[in-house]
Amino acid sequence: xxxxxxxxxxxxxxxxxxxxxxxxxxxxxxxxxxxxxxxxxxxxxxxxxxxxxxxxxxxxxxxxxxxxxxxxxxxxxxxxxxxxxxxxxxxxxxxxxxxxxxxxxxxxxxxxxxxxxxxxxxxxxxxxxxxxxxxxxxxxxxxxxxxxxxxxxxxxxxxxxxxxxxxxxxxxxxxxxxxxxxxxxxxxxxxxxxxxxxxxxxxxxxxxxxxxxxxxxxxxxxxxxxxxxxxxxxxxxxxxxxxxxxxxxxxxxxxxxxxxxxxxxxxxxxxxxxxxxxxxxxx
Length: 283
Hints:
The protein is of the alpha+beta class. It has helices spanning 2-6, 9-27, 43-54, 59-67, 71-93, 101-118, 127-136, 162-177, 200-207, 209-215, 255-280, and strands spanning 146-155, 194-199, 226-230, 234-244.
């Protein structure tokens, strides 16, 4: 009788099922039960998922985008959501979220993006507010002095730094005596020969600070070679065609930039206020 029961296919099926179920539970990561392997996805979940993916937090806009999708596109989006949820749960069940500084920074960054989405759009600042912001931060909008010039470069010969100055002075004498036909024996410069509307900081990046400081002390003389002027590479003769002094632009001329900067400043203050509120809830 017992042998007959043991031969029943139904019994074999039940036993195999129990073994598979036990095996799955034994192989499953610690803390993950069969009930936790169910993923429920709502349209609102997918709308949030799309916002997180694009790092744009506008629920109304993304609800419209989701509703405009075809059924196939919505199903594909649900599949992407499910894949990420599965990987997240499996990683968490293995304890991969513990003591991970990179993950910690990433979560902090994500929360800041979330707080950004909670901040309502600021009202459009008026002219008076823009001008007030400009006056309070005027130094940030100073347009630096610029120079437009051509130069002749003379590198030093051997280990003697004075040789470059001597060659430049000799060339200057020849140009003053006969600038039309005098053949200048200058050298190739690592960068450019002509520079148009460059600030002192831009000039310094190619020539060094000493050259930039000396250059901006000279006056523009379009047809005259001046110098020698020392650089980090040697000596130069310069022909300055134009100098533009530093100036503050009228705020109306940079209204678009002022608007962006003011809104960025307002957002930073609003975000920090939200963070402060969260911190105040902790002891």
